[in-house]
Amino acid sequence: MARPIRFRTTRRRRMGMRSLWWLVLLLALAAMLYINGGRLGPPERLDEVTYRFGLCGQRGGSACVIDGDTVAIGQRRVRLTGFDAPEMDGACNAESAQARLARTALHAWLAQGPFTWTGGTDPPRDRYGRELRAASRGDETLAEHMIGAGLAEGNGWGEGREWCD
Question: What secondary structure letter does DSSP report for 125?
Fold first, then answer.
């Protein structure tokens, strides 16, 4: 007696299951990328900062605000990233005035209490040797706060803000 023709349903079923597993794997990878903000690997380490910051040049502790995007802690200089504040020795009086406002706003934000920043024990550095760190408190980043207040511009490609207009 002749055997009936088989339509290889087990192979199709296996291929369907394999496709399903690939789909699940891709969805899991996409979810991980979304949760980590587009970064592969573990989330960046955040360190809590509890220094009391004064204004540099005034009496106080070892931690102080230099300008609208830089702080000093002892001999360390830390450039806060994600935004660019006007320069204290700006190209015009308007830029210098905005820089003083940005420094005051940064000082006020830091004085609100503990915050976290990125970088760990060996943070990246800029060409001037300053540590590069992104600060945040809760769900708001310092960059969002400073840019939202109109006291800084975002980092990105293109022309910088003209503070002297």
Answer: B
